[in-house]
Design a protein that fits this description.
Radius of gyration: 29 Å
InterPro entries: ARM-like, ARM-type_fold, Armadillo, SYO1-like, TPR_SYO1
Number of helices: 31
Pfam families: TPR_SYO1
GO biological process, one term: ribosomal large subunit biogenesis
Family: Belongs to the nuclear import and ribosome assembly adapter family.
Low-confidence stretches: 1-35, 137-150, 183-191, 301-328, 359-395
Distance between the termini: 39 Å
Structural class: mainly alpha
Largest sheet: none
Oligomer: single chain
GO molecular function, one term: unfolded protein binding
């Protein structure tokens, strides 16, 4: 028990010729593969003087690499360096298919293949291609043939999707290739927006918690970001660009001088607030109606003839995002709708990060024990960096965020009218998931705000009661919501933070213990560990509050039995630890708690559980859990021993 068998390595067998048996087999297999592999023939065709043959070879590679077992054969034969120059081929069709081949190679190969592609300098021809596409759209004011325009659009679309896939590339290349794309005011006047939005996405992503990059950002980049923030174009695509710039400014706030920092952060908050003040539930039906009117008035493109183009490969992480990336570019209103929801989701994510602790261990142990939550946030720094912490934002910034973008406004379920439209139009169906994601991000945002802001900033007891009623209506309004894991994770986190504040301030809660227990019973069956942990913390907070009230023995017994059941049966040590920690909170003090503990034989139950929990930590701990998690689990183990001693003392009274 507690030990694992050491791994043994076998020495390779050798043939009389001095080669290992494996090497001989590999050589034979490699010769056979060279004859059978399509890579050899297709890569040779890339050098053909005939554009049609080059296009055929690229399209074939794009198809073949979708089967992952074929990828090593192409990589071993230098496919990336051979395809790279074709991104700037004289034929637009070859450019499109070559970019599509690299896009599928990166998407189907995963992060390791992406890094290898960057090492082989694929970003140099890709950046040149993106610049040519944007330049072509700017200078080519004369009408073009429909077929040619469609081809140029497709080249750019493939290039942007390839760039998305290469987000995992080393940061050095992004400094060289991506930062200059936001290094000039011309960004604001480009009509080909997908390239610049993609560049802004990349900049926003790579500047997050990245001191290597932030230390080398030029003054021109900071000025360009400020110009984007102050732009006034009304389209949703421009709004998305402003939000991405706002996120980058927040990430790079330490690069601004003390005199510019306050103004820059105020511009960030104002931009976020304006975006979240937009009513997506009302705007989506308006956009759909505008599209229907435009298409019905068009003689060349009736609505019934519009079909979505199929994606070239899995560039995005999720199916609906793949659909968004490849939607026809003449669906202007749908593009606006996607940009609106993406901007609002990103805005909420930025606010979530603004309210986060800088402790790097947060990601490893998101489910800290409820008794330790008050220690998660540090004091504010002094001096010129006073604007860097969310806890130190001025009252004016607090007011702007709360008045204009209070997350509970976005936490409502998506508009019924908008949902009906999206269900009715297949092209718009991808927006349903986006609307639901905005709701979940709003709930997560509310959770973080509740965790770090003074209750008085949230409206005091009355404001917190309003939030509680709102969350109650979301959770208990429909049984279907308890089946959505993403929603459950977000809403249980928000309720947990809210109950913690209500309990600390002795503010009555509008959700009854029976309602909370019903919700927690469903949540503890969820596969997500974070949802189960939140449910147990909610039970702990509810029980510790009830322990101070007369006549609560029966309810405390129900809570105690539920927590004991999870602590003894859940397969995850983090969940077991949270259940034990909740038990400590519920039965720590009070006559009602003592009576309930005796009625459910809590002492004997924990006495029997103690050696099992200790053995689990010893056996599973180091293999499955991080150092911070193990530290918390070890503290719970020690507290379990002490709590059993406390219960033993009560029994001997």
């Amino acid at each position: 028990m507690g030990k694992t068998k050491n791994t043994r390595f076998k020495r390779p067998q050798f043939t009389p010729a001095g080669l290992s048996v494996g090497a001989v087999k590999d050589a034979v297999e490699e010769e056979a593969e060279a004859e059978e592999s399509p890579a050899v023939d297709l890569l040779e065709k890339l050098q053909s003087p005939c554009a049609d043959i080059r296009e055929y070879a690229c399209a074939s590679i794009s198809r073949v690499v979708q089967q992952s077992q074929n990828i090593p054969g192409f990589l071993q034969r230098d496919a990336v360096r051979r395809l790279g120059p074709l991104l700037l081929d004289s034929s637009l069709a070859v450019r499109e298919t070559a970019t599509g081949a690299l896009r599928n190679l990166s998407a189907c190969g995963g992060p390791n293949v992406c890094e290898d592609m960057v090492r082989q300098d694929v970003l140099t021809p890709l950046t040149a291609l993106l610049k040519e596409c944007s330049l072509g759209f700017q200078v080519n004011s004369s009408p073009v043939k429909k077929e040619e325009k469609h081809t140029v659009d497709d080249v750019a679309n493939e290039a942007v999707n390839l760039l998305w896939n290469l987000w995992y590339a080393p940061l050095f290349y992004f400094q060289i290739h991506m930062l200059p794309m936001l290094d000039a005011n011309r960004v604001l006047t480009k009509c080909f927006f997908c390239i610049y939005v993609c560049a802004a996405h990349c900049l926003h992503t790579v500047t997050e918690e990245n001191p290597e990059l932030t230390g080398t950002v030029s003054e021109a980049v900071l000025a360009a970001l400020e110009n984007v923030l102050l732009s006034t174009q009304s389209s949703m695509e421009h709004a998305l660009l402003r939000i991405l710039a706002a996120g980058s400014v927040w990430n790079l706030k330490g690069c601004f001088s003390s005199t510019r920092q306050a103004d820059a952060l105020m511009a960030v908050v104002t931009t976020l607030a304006h975006c979240l003040s937009l009513d997506a539930g009302a705007m989506l039906p308006e956009l759909w109606q505008a599209q229907a009117t435009r298409l019905s008035n068009s003689t060349t493109e009736p609505a019934s003839a519009c079909k979505d183009k199929q994606p070239a490969g899995g560039a995005m992480e999720e199916e609906e995002e793949m659909e968004e990336g490849d939607v026809e570019r003449n669906r202007l209103e749908l593009r606006e709708a996607i940009a609106l929801l993406t901007a609002q989701q990103t805005s909420l994510e930025i606010i979530v990060n603004m309210c986060c602790s800088d402790d790097p261990s947060d990601d490893e142990w998101e489910e800290m024990s409820s008794s330790d939550e008050s220690e998660m946030f540090a004091d504010c720094p002094d001096g010129n960096n006073s604007m860097l912490s969310p806890l130190c934002l001025s009252a004016e910034l607090h007011t702007t965020l709360l008045n204009h973008s209070i997350p509970q406004q976005k936490a409502d379920f998506p508009s019924r009218v908008a949902l009906e439209i999206c269900n009715k139009d297949p092209a718009w169906r991808c927006l349903i998931k986006k609307m639901q994601r905005v709701q979940c991000r709003a709930l997560t945002c509310l959770h973080n705000i509740l965790s770090v802001m003074d209750p008085e900033c949230l409206g005091g007891a009355e404001g917190l009661q309003v939030v509680a009623q709102h969350l109650s209506s979301l959770v208990f309004g429909s049984e279907d919501v308890m089946k959505d894991e993403e929603f459950l994770e977000a809403v249980t986190s928000a309720i947990r933070s809210l109950l913690q504040i209500l309990a600390s301030k002795n503010i009555p809660q509008c959700m009854s213990p029976q309602q909370l227990m019903s919700m927690c019973e469903a949540a503890t069956q969820c596969d997500l560990v974070s949802v189960r942990v939140n449910a147990l913390a909610i039970l702990g907070i509810t029980g510790s509050t009830l322990a101070k009230e007369k006549g609560s023995v029966d309810t405390l017994q129900l809570i105690g039995n539920a927590l004991l059941n999870v602590a003894s049966k859940d397969s995850n040590l983090v969940v077991c630890g949270e259940a034990l920690d909740a038990l400590f909170d519920v039965f720590a003090d009070g006559e009602e708690a003592e009576r309930a503990a005796q009625n459910i034989s809590l002492f004997s139950a924990l006495k029997a559980l103690q050696p099992v929990f200790k053995a689990k930590i010893r056996k599973e701990g180091r293999g499955k859990y991080g150092p911070d998690q193990l530290c918390v689990l070890d503290n719970i183990r020690i507290n379990l021993r002490r709590f059993i001693g406390y219960l033993d003392t009560l029994q001997k009274k």
